[in-house]
Amino acid sequence: xxxxxxxxxxxxxxGGSLRLSCAASGFTLDYYAIGWFRQxxxxxxxxxxxxxxxxxxxxxxxxxxxxxxxxxxxARNTVYLQLNNMKPEDTAIYYCRAYYTASRDYWGQGTxxxxxx
Length: 117
Prior knowledge:
The chain has strands at about 5, 10, 20-25, 35-40, 45-50, 60, 70-75, 80-85, 90-100, 105, 110-115. By secondary structure, it is mainly β.
């Protein structure tokens, strides 16, 4: 069964850090581009950052540059999102997506991240 499962969300204070994980099963992430998206209450889902499958090139939304980092561990079939210096506006449900083709486009169920004092 093809599945993406996010974990690592939770409550963190402003300025704090979290590391989210996205573990794949039923397929291998090696050839997939991976993206992290988020959706805040009352807002549309937005792209946060992504990493290519070929050369590891990364793309970041301006709002997270210098604070968030994406990495992939193909041996563990897992992608990570490191969130540093977090702000209240980072509060959202975070989703990972693995894309290879239109018919091989998978999403996880999401993990809640809340930044509050």
